[in-house]
Design brief:
Helix content is about 45%, strand content about 20%. The chain has one domain: Vaccinia Virus protein VP39 (Rossmann fold), CATH 3.40.50. Strands 3-2-1-4-5-7-6 form a 7-stranded mixed beta sheet, sandwiched between helices. Helix 7 links the parallel strand 4 and strand 5. It is globular and about 50 Å long. It is an alpha/beta fold.
Length: about 280
């Protein structure tokens, strides 16, 4: 798919699953029980404290785990969705800090703004409409870049990595949770539904790390990783694969084709203090 078509497909899909999650408690991460258990495990008490935002969380990890965000800092969230990570970041930066979310889907922006207001962080959190390949953010203006299962959806990851390097202050850091895949079958990569469900657009962990390094970022590491088998993938994305247009037979074939090859990983690093 062309970049514009990819953005439109992903935006429509996430608008649909957000509205569905608000109505039924399910998400793009599959059944309500599977998603709720995953969110509770990765976010702990924060998920309970921000239950409305957590109910519409479509992430694959917790980019804020062990991130040393300090009061007064500026945090930028790429693909901020309904805002769970924005709220947690707002707690850490406090009233003197700033948290900026970027999303391309109007319904997500509205949900995040409402969740921030509900939590009392309207003066700290700002959500802007934009693409992660062309961030509406000043150069060298943020201390942290975070993202949760979003960059895999981008049709031009090199531009995203370059934008991360651009907006970070010298010495600024990033913590990114995302889906990575080894040896993806081509027929899955070409499937629009699989792309919107966070699988087809994913690259390998080595490619991901190399892309961040090529953008000029340093100390890039895979901080942690969790590999999924076919049953776990079905629990996490199976329901939405079907609703996005992939029939049951293709779903089963796809899940078995990537059994043990899909993982959620967290990448950390920084912009050099000398640049």
């Amino acid at each position: 798919m062309k970049a514009t078509e990819t953005h439109e497909q992903v935006s429509r899909a996430y608008d649909r699953v957000l509205r569905k999650s608000q109505q039924t408690g399910s998400s793009c991460c599959g059944t309500s029980s599977a998603k709720s258990a995953f969110t509770a495990r990765t976010y702990g008490e924060a998920a309970a404290a921000h239950d409305v935002a957590a109910a519409s969380s479509f992430g694959c990890g917790n980019p804020l785990a062990l991130a040393e965000i300090e009061p007064g800092q500026t945090v930028l969230d790429l693909g901020s969705g309904a805002g769970l990570d924005l709220l947690i970041a707002a707690e850490r930066v406090g009233p003197t800090g700033r948290v900026i979310g970027i999303d391309m889907t109007d319904s997500m922006i509205e949900a995040a703004a409402a969740n921030a207001a509900r939590a009392g962080y309207a003066d700290v959190v700002e959500v802007r409409k934009g693409l992660i390949e062309e961030l509406p953010v000043e150069t060298g203006s943020v201390d942290w870049v975070i993202s949760n299962c979003v960059i895999n959806l981008s049709p031009d990851k090199a531009r995203v990595f370059g934008e991360i390097a651009r907006v970070l202050r010298p010495g600024g850091r990033f913590s990114i949770s995302d889906i990575v895949v080894e040896d993806m079958p081509e027929w899955i990569r070409e499937n629009a539904a699989a792309h919107a469900a966070c699988i087809a657009g994913a690259i390998s962990a080595d490619e991901y790390r190399a892309g961040l390094v090529a953008a000029g970022l340093v100390d890039v590491e895979v901080a942690d990783r969790m590999v999924y088998d076919a049953a776990q993938l079905r629990a996490l994305v199976g329901e939405e694969f079907s609703s996005l247009g992939l029939d049951a037979a293709l779903l089963d074939a796809g899940l078995h084709a990537v059994d043990g090859k899909v993982a959620s990983a967290r990448f950390t690093g920084r912009r050099s203090s000398d640049t």
